[in-house]
Amino acid sequence: MMEVVLAGNPNTGKSSLFNMLTGSYEYVGNWSGVTVEKKIGKLKGDRGRLTDLPGLYSLNPISRDEAVASRFLIDEPFDFILNVVDASQLERNLNLTMQLLECGKPLAIGLNMIDVAKQKGCHVQVDRLSDLLGVRVVPLVARTGKGCDQLLGMLAATSRELEQASTEADSGNIFSKTEPYLVPYGDVVEEGIARLIRLMPPEIRFPRWMAVQFFEGNPVVRDLLAAHVDPEQLDSLLRWAELEIAQRDGARTLSLYIRKKRAEHIAMLVRQCTVQTRGEASSLTEKIDRIATHKFWGIPFFLFFMYLTFKLTFEWVGSPLSDLLDGFINGPLRSGTGWLLDRMGAGSLIQAVIFDGIFAGVGGVLVFVPQIFILFFIISFIEDSGYMARIAAVMDRLMETVGLNGKTFIPMIIGFGCNVPGIMAARTIEQPKERLLTIILTPLMSCSARLTVYSLFVGIFFSGSSGVYCAFLVCAGNRGRACLG
Ligand code: GDP
Ligand code: MG
Fold it and tell me: Higher pLDDT residue, 256 or 477?
C-alpha cells in the first residue's frame, strides 16, 4: 500500500483535495489551525493511503503546525509527496516545493486553483514547469474536482511502478521524468553541504535536505543532527560557512543567503513557465477585499456587518421565528396537550409537571434555538468566506495593545449576541494560550439573554433609574473581562 502525504502552504486547497481523493468527509476551513492534527484517508480505488499534513510555508518551522509537518517528514515512513501548489501564487508556493525536492523523495505537484490564476490573468505552462522541475505536474481545481481523476490515475500508476520496483529491487528514478531540480546554493554552501553529508551516518534520511536545513538554521534538524554527529564538528563547519559567506559574498547571515539564493532561482523558474495576461477586470472578491481590509473603512465596514448580523438574528428573522415557536408551544401545543390530559383524566400534579415544568422550562429554552441557529449560520459564513481572516488582520494591531490577537475580536462581538456560538468561534485561534483566554473572556460579554435578567433585577430593585443601573451592570460584566485580560 503506497503512503502518500499531502504537503503545501496553508489555504492552497489540501483539505479540499484530500476530500476529493479519499471520498471521505472532512471539515474544510480557511484556517491552518483546522488541520493541526494529521488526517489519514484511503485513496479512491484503494491504491494507497493519503495523509493531510498541516499547512506550512517552509520546512524551517516557526509555528507548531510547521513543526508537526517537519517532524512527520523526518520521522514517518512514506513513499510519495503530493505537493499542492497554488497556481495563483506560484512564486511563494515554490519555496516549499524546492525544499521538498531536496528530500529526494518521489514527488508530484498538484497545481491547484487554476481557476483563480486564470482570473488573475496568470497562465502557468504546465508542461514547461514539469520539465523544469523534473517532476509530474497535474493541473487541478480541487473545489470542483477538476483534474482529480487524472491525479488519481497518476497515483495508481505510481503505486504500480512502486510495487514493480520493490520486486525488482531497483527503485532507480522511476517517478521523475528526469533528475528533479535542485537549487544550486553557490560554491561555499555546496562545499559545506558535501562536507556535512560526509559526516552523517548512513541511516540519516534525506542527507542533502538535512544539510541545507542545518545551514539555514532549522532547529528540528539541528537537534536531530546533534544526536548523530559530533556537535563540535557541526559548530566549526557552521562557523566556517558563515565566515566564508560573509567574506566572499558579503552576506549578513548564512540563512539569509540561502533563502536569497532559493528565491532567485524560483523567480527565474517562474519567469520561464508563466505568461501574464491582462486578467479579467478586477474580480468581485478583489473589490470587496479592498473595502473589507481598508485601513480606515475596514472597521466601520465590519461594525456595519455585525450590526446586520444582530439585526438579522434578533429583529428580522430570529425573533419572529422565536415568537412563532413560542406562539406554537404556548398556543396549539399547550391547548392540545391540555385537552389530551383532560381526556386521559390526568391529576393536577401531572398537569402541573407538564405545564409548569416541561412547557415553561424546556419551551423557554427552545424559543432561543432559531436565534442561535442564525448566529451559527452567519459565523460559518464569516469563516468559510474568508472574511474572518480579513477582520483578524484589520483588528490585529488594536487587539495587540491589550495582549490579544485579532481573531479574539469576533468571538467577543458574537458573545454580545450569544455566548455559545461566541465561544465556538474561538476554536479558530491557533495559539493555545490566546484561545483559552478568549474562551474565558467571552462569557463576560453581556449577551442578550442576560440583558433580560438585568432588566428584571433593575426593574424590581431600582425602578426609579433603571436605565443607569442597567448600563452599570453591563459595564460591570465587561469590567470583569478587562480585569481578567
Ligand atoms: P488547506 O488549508 O490547504 O487545507 O485548504 P482548504 O482545502 O481548506 O481550502 C481553502 C479554501 O480554498 C476553501 O474555501 C476551498 O473551498 C478553496 N479552494 C480549494 N481549492 C480551490 C480551487 O481549486 N479553486 C478555488 N477557487 N478555490 C479553491
Ligand atoms: Mg486544510
Answer: 256
Q: Which residues, in sequence order, are CB contacts of 428 under 8 Å at separation 6+?
A: 29, 31, 33, 34, 383, 388, 407
In this model, does residue 35 exceed pLDDT 60? no
Q: Quick one: average pLDDT of 444-455? A: 80
Is the shortest distance between the CB of 147 and ligand 1 below 6 Å?
no
Please count the helices (runs of H) and the strands (runs of E) in the chain.
24, 8
Whether the CB of 96 sits within 6 Å of ligand 1: no
Can you state the percent helix, strand and coil of the chain, rounding each to 5? 65, 10, 25
The 10s digit of each residue's pLDDT in 157-193 is 888 887 887 766 544 444 444 578 899 999 999 999 9
Q: Average pLDDT over the chain, rounded to whole?
A: 83
User: What is 52-67 written as a DSSP string?
Assistant: EPPP-S-SS--SHHHH
Look-up of cell digits 489551525: 33
* pLDDT over threshold 70, residue 362: yes
Asked whether the predicted pLDDT for residue 430 surpasses 80, the reply is no
Query: Ligand 1 centroid to 398 CA: how many Å?
Result: 29
Q: Is the pTM of this model over 0.70?
A: no
53 lines ligand 1 (CB under 6 A): no
For ligand 1, is residue 15 a contact (CB within 6 Å)? yes
What's the gap in Å between 35 CA and the centre of ligand 1? 13
Check pocket membership of 113 for ligand 1, CB cut-off 6 A. Answer: yes
φ, ψ dihedrals at 299, nearest 5°:
-75, -50
CA of 273 to the centre of ligand 1 (A): 23
Measured distance between the N- and C-terminal CA atoms of the chain, rounded to whole angstroms: 51
pLDDT of 329 strictly over 60: yes
Ligand nearest to the Cα of 8, by number:
1
CA of 21 to the centre of ligand 2 (A): 14
Q: Verify whether ligand 1 is closer than 6 Å to residue 139 (CB atom).
A: no
Burial class (CB in 10 A: 0-12, 13-18, 19+), 38: middle
